[in-house]
Design a protein that fits this description.
About 70% of the residues lie in helices and about 0% in strands. The chain has about 190 residues and is mainly alpha-helical.
Length: about 190
């Protein structure tokens, strides 16, 4: 029964699915793609990719992940592993297109995007889009893809201090944009030490 195979795979842990995929079971890897595809595309969108480009790079990342699945040792999450692959592929694409130079200059151009809606929900993607390109890329790599500052610096071919500055400025801007207008939550946090 085809449906029972799908249900059986859906109940397995990512590490078990990786082991089955490494043994040649394509459906196991398909389950990993189903579980984590939208998160990988979301990371790429936060890094600045347009929807179609995010889809293309995510597909390339999963293909690379399938080819290298035996290298996944389960020391971290599969999602983190494939996100790092996707982030690096996207950065290589940017470098090929010579669009990466904009990240080194630290330009502060920002897009006008709403950070939330009338219900008070936070729009992290909208807030990220308002960051300068270098800040958005560095914050996305360090917090979305799980790269260290040093790994992000190497991937972007930037000095470590530049990456740290972009991350700090980006996080400061995100905190300011995403904080409640009345400051109630911030006041409570200060009191808790």
């Amino acid at each position: 029964m085809p449906g029972s195979t799908t249900l059986a795979l859906a109940s397995l842990h990512d590490v078990e699915l990786c082991a089955r995929a490494a043994a040649g079971e394509r459906k196991a890897f398909g389950e990993l793609v189903r579980r984590h595809g939208s998160a990988v595309r979301g990371l790429l969108r936060r890094m600045g990719a347009q929807a179609a480009e995010a889809d293309d790079v995510a597909q390339d990342a999963f293909l690379a992940g399938f080819e290298r699945i035996a290298e996944f040792r389960g020391e971290g999450t599969f999602a983190g592993w494939v996100k790092r692959i996707a982030a690096r592929l996207y950065l290589r694409r940017l470098q090929r297109e010579r669009r990466l130079g904009v990240f080194a200059d630290g330009g502060d151009e920002e897009m006008e995007v709403r950070d939330g809606d009338a219900d008070g929900r936070i729009d992290l993607d909208g807030a990220l889009k308002r960051l300068a390109p270098g800040e958005r890329m560095c914050v996305s790599l360090c917090f979305g893809a799980g790269l260290s500052h040093a790994e992000a610096a190497e991937a972007l071919n930037l000095p470590l201090g530049t990456v740290k500055s972009h991350v700090k400025r980006g996080l400061d801007k995100l905190r300011a944009r995403l904080a409640p207008a009345d400051g109630a939550v911030l006041e409570g946090r200060r009191g808790n030490g």
